[in-house]
Design goal:
The protein is built from 1 helix and 11 strands, in the order αβββββββββββ. With 190 residues, the protein is of the alpha+beta class. The chain is globular and about 70 Å long. 23% of the residues are buried.
Length: 190
């Protein structure tokens, strides 16, 4: 019986480890796609911006301003990364139900979207007010939108504007489509 030389066995083992790592990464990404939730977020303001050769819009979502009691579980104001709990309303749009400093939900039917608090910025040791409105950025405010037949991006003059967003179990958001007065536009993050 002939034994493989040691360098060939090592090379084969290294190649198998690399292939296993690559396949596990791909499987994890596919699992995230299969198990992610799709939500429809109402857009309060849509501003078209033309950046060089592409059509971009900035979207200000209804969930960008979240009212809260102003304190996290440690009794301090929210700052940094937060998780906004979304619940589906009767009209099909998802609205902010609660804000958390951890990936916790009050109801299993709800989903989480992660964002960064922009206001208020409080120092942890400073006395804070009991009620605050937080301005939250979700990293889906800038969208690239392909031009329509007339060669112009959708405008803010429309009455019904929403963005369909895919959320993974970590609260990361990926925009899928922009709806303007019933017309769908494919979008992506720039």
């Amino acid at each position: 019986m002939k034994v493989l030389n040691k360098p060939a066995a090592r090379l084969t083992a290294i190649a198998l480890i690399q292939i296993t790592i690559l396949l596990s990464i791909l499987a994890f990404k596919q699992y995230t796609v299969w198990t992610s939730d799709t939500v429809l977020l109402r857009v309060g303001q849509l501003v078209p911006i033309e950046v060089q050769s592409g059509d971009y819009v900035t979207a200000r979502y209804e969930i960008s301003s979240v009212d809260s009691l102003g304190r996290n579980r440690d009794g301090e104001a929210f700052y940094g990364t937060v998780y906004v709990e979304l619940t589906e309303s009767a009209d099909g749009y998802w609205r902010a139900e609660a804000i958390h400093d951890r990936r916790d939900r009050d109801d299993d039917k709800n989903v989480l979207i992660s964002g960064d608090v922009g206001y208020p910025y409080y120092d942890p040791g400073v006395q804070i007010i009991d009620y605050a409105t937080y301005e939250i950025s979700y990293d889906i405010e800038w969208l690239f939108v392909a031009s329509d037949d007339a060669g112009s991006p959708p405008t803010a003059a429309a009455s019904g504007i929403a963005v369909e967003v895919r959320l993974d179990r970590f609260g990361n958001a990926e925009p899928l489509r922009l709806f303007v007065d019933g017309r769908a536009y494919d979008v992506e993050k720039p």
